[in-house]
Design a protein that fits this description.
The chain is an alpha/beta fold. It has one domain: Rossmann fold. The chain is built from six helices and seven strands, in the order ααβαβαββαβαββ. It has a seven-stranded mixed β-sheet with strand order 3-2-1-4-5-7-6. α5 links the parallel β4 and β5. α1 packs across α2 and α2 packs across α3. The chain starts with a helix and ends with a strand. The relative contact order is 0.16. The model has no long low-confidence stretch (mean pLDDT 89).
């Protein structure tokens, strides 16, 4: 198993969004965070030999992190065609050996027919934009429907919501930890060149 640090280094070449869309809360996942989450998933036996699905894969950070750890296959589901174009370019940069399937579609209603054990990894919208409140709820619902276990990044202060949602939908939070998420200025409402926000990562066992 490659180290977490070496995984983060390999992910350092992954390009972000050329024209990020605020309505979709398109913020690139930091390589260190993606490496940490996928490293944990691998230690828990949630990657090797499994199908890993990245809901809202963006330009592919989580998808590619998983693909570098040897799952049976990885699926990235993303609604934005431009982001998928960049993701495919990132796949060539990273040169992962596991097969990757890129699918353009709504991650909350993914066009998937999966019968094998599935692990979901995702950095869903936090629901911070007007008109997009509670966006992460729909992603959790999809995870509960297709996965046996999921790893997801949420805004700080989400623990009560995530634990309650999991419990109400046949799941259980088994791991939780805080993580800093560094955001570069991308939109007009950003006033700082770089801003660190508090996020939380959850592993949920669904069944």
């Amino acid at each position: 198993m490659a180290t977490k640090r070496s995984l983060a280094t390999k992910l350092g070449v992954v390009a972000g969004f050329e024209n990020p869309r605020a309505a979709l809360e398109q913020y690139p996942t930091p390589p260190d965070l993606a490496a940490h989450v996928v490293h944990l998933a691998d230690l828990q036996g949630d990657v090797d030999g499994r199908t890993v699905v990245d809901l809202g894969s963006g330009t592919g950070m989580f998808t590619l992190a998983a693909a570098l750890r040897g799952p049976a296959r990885v699926v990235g589901v993303e609604i934005d065609r431009d982001a998928l174009t960049t993701a495919r370019e990132n796949e060539r940069r990273v040169a992962a050996s596991a097969p990757i399937h890129w699918i353009q579609g709504d991650a909350t209603r993914p066009p998937l027919d999966l019968s094998e054990p599935v692990t979901v990894v995702m950095n869903p919208p936090f629901g911070a934009q007007d008109g997009n409140r509670n966006a992460d709820r729909a992603f959790l619902r999809t995870a509960s429907e297709i996965a046996t276990v999921s790893y997801s990044v949420h805004n700080g202060g989400s623990r009560e919501f995530v634990e309650a949602y999991a419990a109400d939908n046949g799941g259980e939070v088994t791991h939780a930890f805080a993580a800093e998420f560094e955001l570069d200025a991308q939109f007009d409402h950003h006033t700082d060149a770089v801003r660190e926000i508090d996020t939380e990562v959850y592993r949920i066992r669904w069944r």
